[in-house]
Amino acid sequence: MSKNILVPVDFTTVTDCALNHAIVTAKKIDASILLLHVVEEQEDIEKAKALLKKFTEKAKSAAPSITFKELVRVGNIFDDIGDAASENDANLIIMGTHGKKGLQYLVGSNALRVITHSSVPFVVVQLKDAKEGGYQDIVVPLDLHKETKQKLKLVASMAKYFDSKVHLITPNETDEFLKNKVSRNIAYAKQYLSERKIKCEAQVADEGEDFLKAIIKYATTLDADLIAIMNLQKNSLMGVLGSSYEQGMITNEAMVPVLCMNPLVTTKSDIPIMFQ
Hints:
With 276 residues, the chain is α/β, with parallel strands linked by helices. Helices cover 38% and strands 21% of the residues. Strand 1, helix 1 (13-29) and strand 2 (31-39) form a beta-alpha-beta unit.
């Protein structure tokens, strides 16, 4: 099956970073890249097409082996990024954030609105290019939610392409019942990844440590390439932590890209795997 990566474009610097990540990923999985620009009014289409054509030409010169496609549509970013991805059979959306205007002003609830509308997984990046080897070290926070197991399928599908090592991290539960449940989740994850010949290790956060800070610290120590999270609540990208943590994760100070997906009950798709 052909593979497609969608990149929302608003011509800011962080879009260039998103494109860089898309190119590195496309080379690994043999995918084409669809460049999407959303305008609010019909009369803006022709100007947008001209700008996008120039952007595409620059992209082609940077990666002549990749097929690039262009799409300009009238709408809003909250609905049309996800819709365009579904309509064009995208396997993954790579989107920039942390900018000051346009599409890239996507932090907190704004980013969440875009992500929750889509049945396609996102990689959200900041002003930091991908390493040449791609996503070789992936941090996966594990919690008490059953949907966490769905996340492993998504991570495994990416890890196979990049020959990644998966680094599991769990909160330090003091309650014996919760501690045992977390231990079972770790055991399940290790077995699941081992059966697929994916390297992995597990880490428990320090006792009393804020779990978000523990995740970022762990990712920074590893110089990780990706953090994988799941949208477990309507208003939170980190269901285990609560809605106040979503912006801190997506716009983490270490600028580690974040892989986001919705659990099956909130998506249009019934297969949480990016690449077959």
